[in-house]
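Let us work through a complete example step by step.
Step 1: write down the sequence.
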Amino acid sequence: MAIWQRQPELAQLNDNLRNTIGEVLDIRFEQVDDDSLAASMPVDSRTHQPYGLLHGGASVVLAETVGSTASYLCIDTARYYCVGLEVNANHLRGLRSGRVTAVCRPVHLGRSTHVWDIRLCGEDGKPSCISRLTVAIVPLGENAPRRP
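Step 2: predict the structure and record it as tokens.
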């Protein structure tokens, strides 16, 4: 059984990245199934740290992008919105080029919080980063942000 409130469409998810850090870093949603969402990002000058390796902060941007989008797809957006509460990352291996892919799966989908396990791998399939994202699910109010 799928975890999504509505069926995710990759084209729409990618359109939602326009005019965001996701567009700047060329993040692309690439795959969705019943309980996971995947996106990738290039490992190049936009995402390198000064020594030519994938910047840990860029990995966290990818992880939070895919995880927060997954939470958004799991909630009733007429009643709630979601915001990142905590993100952590263990950087396991450096990458210098190619694309890094993040696959996000739920650990916990509760009424007020979601917790996501996000695994980043290089093109060779070897893990480069393991991240956990906790997202707060907040009732809509007059000051709530709106997504397109």
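Step 3: interpret the result. Residues 5 and 74 are 5 Å apart (CA to CA).
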